[in-house]
Amino acid sequence: MATTTETSETYEQFIEHVRQLHYVSDAGSVLQWDQQVMMPEGGTPARAKQSSALSTLHHDLLTDDQLGEWLDELEAADLDAEEAAVVREVRRDHERAVRVSSDLVERISEASSNALPVWEEAKAEDDFEMYADTLEEMVQLRREYAAAIDPDRDPYEVLFEEYEPYLGIDTAEDVLTTLRDELVPLIDDIADSDVTLADPFSGTYDDDTQHALVEDALATLGYDWDHGRLDTAPHPFSTGTQFDARVTTRFKPDDPMDAVGSTIHEFGHATYTLGLPREQYGTPLGDNRDLSVHESQSRFWENHVGRSRPFWDHFAETANDHLGIDASPREFYEAANTVHPDNLIRVEADELTYHMHIVLRFEIERDLIRGDLAVEDVPQVWNEKMEEYLGVRPETDAEGCLQDIHWTNGAIGYFPTYTLGSVLAAQLDHHLRADVGDVDTLVRDGDFDDIHDWLTENVHRHGARYETDDLVREATGESVSADHFLAYADEKYRDLYDC
Amino acid sequence: MATTTETSETYEQFIEHVRQLHYVSDAGSVLQWDQQVMMPEGGTPARAKQSSALSTLHHDLLTDDQLGEWLDELEAADLDAEEAAVVREVRRDHERAVRVSSDLVERISEASSNALPVWEEAKAEDDFEMYADTLEEMVQLRREYAAAIDPDRDPYEVLFEEYEPYLGIDTAEDVLTTLRDELVPLIDDIADSDVTLADPFSGTYDDDTQHALVEDALATLGYDWDHGRLDTAPHPFSTGTQFDARVTTRFKPDDPMDAVGSTIHEFGHATYTLGLPREQYGTPLGDNRDLSVHESQSRFWENHVGRSRPFWDHFAETANDHLGIDASPREFYEAANTVHPDNLIRVEADELTYHMHIVLRFEIERDLIRGDLAVEDVPQVWNEKMEEYLGVRPETDAEGCLQDIHWTNGAIGYFPTYTLGSVLAAQLDHHLRADVGDVDTLVRDGDFDDIHDWLTENVHRHGARYETDDLVREATGESVSADHFLAYADEKYRDLYDC
Fold first, then answer.
1. Is the pLDDT of residue A366 over 90?
2. Shared-domain flag, residues A87 and A154
3. A473 and A386 together in one domain
4. Per the CB < 8 Å rule, is B52 touching A23?
5. Helix segments in B300-415, DSSP class H
6. I want to staple A54 with a disulfide (CB 3.0 to 4.6 A). Which of A28, A330, B47, B272 is the partner?
7. Same domain for A58 and A171?
8. Residue A248: phi, psi to the nearest 5?
């Protein structure tokens, strides 16, 4: 606790203000969940007003001069480590909010609203020309945004830090480059392999069947239904607090493994949220670290559990019962890990080729923001990189550079966190196994408690107390590195494809 | 529009502030809907914080000094009728919020939180003694609340105006007393009648069956699914905006008519909300008038449509299909209108005896607040009045004065609005028939458009522009009166019971 009575009083007022900020933000998340999962479509105009009112109030609380004064006072005081961490986190949010004018925030918000139908039509018509000016405007706005936060630094770095503030663009670049260099030959070998992995699914599976299947998957993994729920949404996501972290999924009639993987992925996000300390709800100590760490939790469960042989040893019988088939654990395992180098679409990519899609987007968005690439050249560069990294060239921009919504939303600098999450997941998995022992046997027995405990102990319970790289070192004793992911991928996929 | 540029500018700023207030309030309603319908129970602590944060922000916006200054300026300006109505409504809310200290609001909120488990236990144990101090505290707090708003007026009147500001306690008292005097002999005659009405239901009906049934009832009546949805909740309610007004219901296995009636009741509330002008969303002109008028819409649809013979002429076949029975329209009609004078529980009461439950509660709560009745005497007075009005005496307080949650919640002065709603519904029904013509044939044909149009034209579209009594006069050409309800009840029930 802070040492003087005066500092202590300031800290109490400050932390109460911070909690209010979080509560308003979380109320906004409830509105968004409802909008995507429950709201009838006609509710949109009113919901837009409600959400915007909460955003405005949140922004007012965050940029409040009084908050700035408290931060000044507390930064000069003698705080303990936890208090100092809280002050660090709030200072960062406060500073970014203060530096970016409301006018710019509004212009970005408006531009991305206007961009959405343009992007949708351009994608439907496969007409990049139609979209080029819109992308150019968003790139300019985001450069302006980065300059408002810090005119002296690389604008892409500043944007990346919006999503992952404490890992460094150099680390990200290093990881992505290493993955590109190491995975391309592995994917080549797989493409050349004669092995064909099993596909035990034929016909289609209705929504009720798939819902019951993924509900059982969640129950098996230990999802806490008293603090969560499962629904469907057009784009699966997870949201909530440590008291109520919800999962959404969707069903493709001919591909039940898609729903299983997607549901387990969102489950991973939810377990992170549910593992945050409850007594710290509303403060950074009770809030998650940023996107890389969040994604490491979803990818850990999706890939290192849900795509593992031991999981299917445990879950195959249940899955067979639901789907009315008779596939072996090995067949489910193979179906979950089939590599498709010729796939063009990121969200349909397998665990390996996925990262090539990210590397490509990272390189393009970085160069766009830095001014090293012109918008008009994006389609050509995209296609060349697809050919270079995956040996396949999109025939249309709809299947190429128009496929993702991120840039249209203004989310530039976001893509790398997906791959960083995978890399971190593999690193955590490696150290979990060193600490806990025979994880495969636990998973095969359906006993996930030790895994949950390890992740809670080493990651979740810290909230945002540590900066990302410190958190990773606390949990694993080393900095973020691509090595564990590469070793895991190499072993698993060379075995599967006998190459 | 306001006449001078300056006034016009003030009005613009003022109305923008008012809209923000409404948006925050509506965001809070989304959180409450979610809590009662979707939220896993473990989410409660976080939700309490989020809701409370929104309440605080709403209160701050409502009591803002700047808002008071705008109101002063606008009240002195030359406004048109609609602007003046907006200023009147906001002034009232602002004034009440300013006069009641945050401390008192918090003490009432805390007292009612604390009262809940005490009431629950007292009811479970049938032990009024256990609850007496709690009720006494709430009565004192509510008297203090009334005195804060206006120390010179009857405190019960002030409390009643919390729920129905523009009808007058005299009107309420007059209506309730008339109903008591006129309905007691009618109920006596029904109790003495030899007629037994049909009960075509046997066995139980599962939730899915009842859900499909009430969904069809909503579709038949013209519920707009693009702007609403149907879910279940422990205590059915309706909530939302003119863009998204939702209905909840619940199912009793052996009583499908309960779900039908309750669903149509909430549908009535939702149609009112959906009929409010969309372009006025966020202002009093796009907001509903108070509880009596809201309840008139629910009771109109529940009683004057849903309990009518023409409705069952239309809907019996659908109901039979769902329930797997073969009841005639007449049997459904009788089942929907069976009077049970010996029923002790308000929420299970029929259309007629219901009002005796309200009269009793009104007399008791009025006398408690005015200091004319001591808390310790409530059970005895309750039981005496039950005997006097309905000829039946509760054997326990659990089935007597402990049955309702309202007083525990601090809602004193609320009960009369239920009966005022019924009376208003009958009055509207009378004038609808005079204006539209053969309503029975329309209902029998399942053609509800003209009814919706009449209600929208005469009630919904005005929002809160008119004070309640003016709205009633606009719609019906006369003040609120019990006469139409009494004529309707007398004709319908003397015919059904041949008395």
1. yes
2. no
3. yes
4. yes
5. 309-323, 329-336, 354-370, 378-390
6. A28
7. no
8. -125, 160
Q: How far is B224 from chain A (nearest CA, A)?
A: 9
Q: What is the pLDDT of residue A102?
A: 87
Beta-bridge mates of residue A248? A231
Q: Is residue A132 part of a domain?
A: no
Q: Is the dihedral of CA B42, B45, B50, B51 positive or negative?
A: positive
Domain count, chain A: 2
Pairing state between β A238-241 and B230-232: unpaired
B281 in contact with A, Cβ within 8 Å: yes
Q: Among B41, B49, B242, whose Cβ lies nearest the Cβ of A23?
A: B49
User: Same domain for B54 and B189?
Assistant: no
Q: What is the pLDDT of residues B444-492, one digit of tens each?
A: 999 999 999 999 999 999 999 999 999 999 999 999 999 999 999 999 9
Distance CA B337, CA B314 (A): 17
> From A21, which residue of chain B is nearest by alpha-carbon distance?
B53
The CA distance from B26 to the nearest CA of chain A, in Å, is 7
DSSP B417-483: HHHHHHHHHHHHHHHHHHHH--HHHHHHTT--HHHHHHHHHHTGGGTTSS-HHHHHHHHHSS---SH
Distance from CA of A62 to the nearest CA of B (A): 14
Distances (CA, A) of B260 to A73, A174, A402, B318: 62, 64, 50, 12
Known catalytic residue: A82? no
With an 8 Å Cβ cutoff, is B198 touching chain A? no
Write the pLDDT tens digit of every residue in A120-172.
Answer: 999 999 999 999 999 999 999 999 999 999 999 999 999 999 999 999 999 99
Q: Are residues B63 and B170 in the same domain?
A: no
> Which among A23, A46, A224 has CB closest to B26?
A46
Whole-angstrom CA distances from A332 to A197, A200, A266, A320, A498 are 10, 7, 20, 10, 18
| Residue A427 domain flag | yes
CA of B3 vs chain A CAs: smallest distance (Å): 29
- Per-residue model confidence as pLDDT tens digits over B81-135: 999 999 999 999 999 999 999 889 989 988 988 999 999 999 999 999 999 999 9
- Closest residue in A to B38 (Cα) is A229
Q: At what angle do helices A309-323 and A329-336 cross, to 10 degrees?
A: 100
Q: Is residue B122 part of a domain?
A: no
Considering the candidates B162, B266, B302, B351, report the single residue annotated as catalytic.
Answer: B266
* Domain-located, residue A105: no
**What is the least distance, in Å, from the CA of A37 to any CA of chain B?**
11
Residue among A435, A432, A430 nearest A489 (CA): A430
Beta-carbon separation of B42 and A243 below 8 A: yes
The range of the structural domain enclosing residue B401 comes to 127-499
Per cent of chain A over pLDDT 90 is 96
CB contact under 8 A, A47 and B244: yes
Over residues B134-149, mean pLDDT: 97
Q: How many CB atoms lie within 10 A of CB A5?
A: 8
Query: Which residue of chain A comes nearest to B22, CA vs CA?
Result: A50
Whether residues A94 and A156 fall in one domain:
no
Chain B's closest residue to A225, CA to CA, is B40
Chain B residues with CB inside 8 Å of A52's CB?
A: 23
Q: Model confidence over A37-93: pLDDT tens digits?
A: 999 999 999 999 999 999 999 999 999 999 999 999 999 999 999 999 999 999 999
What pLDDT shows up at residue B3?
Answer: 62
B48 touches chain A (CB under 8 A): no
Q: Using one digit for the tens of pLDDT, what is the confidence trace for A164-196?
A: 999 999 999 999 999 999 999 999 999 999 999
Across the A:B interface, residue pairs with CB atoms under 8 Å apart total 116
pLDDT in tens, A334-353: 999 999 999 999 999 999 99
Name the residue among A495, A486, A489, A481 with its Cα closest to residue A424.
A481
pLDDT digit string, tens, across residues A253-296:
999 999 999 999 999 999 999 999 999 999 999 999 999 999 99
| Chain B residues whose beta carbon lies within 8 Å of the beta carbon of residue A243 | 42-47
- Contact call for B20 and A56, based on CB within 8 A: yes
Which chain A residues have a beta carbon less than 8 Å from that of B26? 46, 50
Give the per-residue pLDDT at A3.
63
